[in-house]
Design brief:
Length: 236
């Protein structure tokens, strides 16, 4: 489950940070549980498996690294997404955290919105929601299985990135996404490219979709980002 109601376990012994993360994630619609000790988290995870764990490196009872290692040896948690939090910024420590089995790594202090975005992207990639094979918006049709897009019966030739961009927008019609959110959702949080790249691909997508006097379904929201018009194709 990648959307709201996905269950997240926060294993963090710094109470102010734990409360801050819990508040922000619950605001996003996630179900959140917090644990302050590594050994307590180990017990909790034997009883029930959440959709993702935010795991601090340094914990009383059992270190985050050791807990991560244990989780990766158990079938029920082997593929569960894990994001490590740590005050250690050295490259060697980062590599050690990832090599232990963590999916992502965030060094304190960090931006809470960035962490939330990484959680969202990791959940979406690891446990994709069951969605319809075909998305439609007005006369635009996107076939996920055949990787084809058509508009009014005309095939629309899109590159892989433009296809993913259109798919991402059509899954959430009417919602405005910043360039950073689109980079995270379409390219992934582990890919570091300039935000202006989004503008280039949106331009290519528009050119492919819009022929002659076809209306443009993609909205540019000045100062915010882009969305696909949820009223597109509907009678006014």
């Amino acid at each position: 489950m990648s959307g709201p109601n996905a269950r997240i376990l926060i294993v963090e012994d710094e109470e102010p940070l734990s409360l801050l993360l819990r508040y922000n994630l619950e605001t996003e619609g996630y179900e959140v549980e917090t644990v302050t000790r590594g050994d307590d988290a180990d017990t909790r995870l034997r009883e029930s498996t959440p959709d993702l764990v935010v795991l601090d490196w340094m914990l009383p009872g059992l270190s985050g690294i050791e807990l991560c290692r244990r989780l990766r040896t158990r079938p029920e948690t082997k593929s569960m997404p894990i994001i490590m939090l740590t005050a250690r910024g050295e490259e060697s420590e980062r590599v050690r955290g990832l090599s232990t089995g963590a999916d992502d790594y965030v060094t304190k202090p960090f931006s809470v919105p960035e962490l939330v975005a990484r959680i969202r992207a990791l959940l979406r990639r690891s446990r994709p929601e069951r969605l319809a094979d075909i998305l439609t918006l007005g006369e635009i049709e996107l076939d996920r299985v055949k990787k084809r897009v058509s508009r009014g019966g005309r095939d629309v030739d899109l590159g892989p990135t433009e296809f993913r961009l259109l798919e991402f927008l059509m899954e959430r019609p009417g919602r405005v996404f910043t360039r950073e959110q689109l980079l995270d959702g379409v390219w992934g949080s582990e890919v570091y490219i300039d935000e202006r790249t989004v503008d280039v691909h949106v331009g290519r997508l528009r050119k492919a979709l819009n022929r002659g006097r076809d209306g443009d379904p993609i909205r540019t929201v000045r100062g915010s980002g882009y969305s696909i018009d949820d009223r597109f194709g509907k009678a006014s």
